[in-house]
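[job 4471] stage=fold_predict status=RUNNING
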Amino acid sequence: MAHKVGKKLKDLSKSHQVLAITHLQQIASVADHHFKVFKEVKGGRTLTKIKKLAKEERVSEIARMLSGKKITPLAEKQASQLLEEALD
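[job 4471] inference complete, writing structure tokens
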């Protein structure tokens, strides 16, 4: 189901600007751009940061979504495959 939602969002993005916040790798993999939102503590204050991910970082982040903290070679392979399929 998530894959179908991702494809619908991709189709919608051809005529509209779409911003999606997701934890689902099937949806994230069809995006044109990926941003990682994370928190960082500095001087006792929690800051929210946003980073645009490069191509290699996109693979790693989707692999992390698949496997959790420890990224496995299989998760990296699956992440690369999801990103390649999104180009079709």
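[job 4471] summary: The first strand starts at residue 35 and ends at 42.
[job 4471] exit 0
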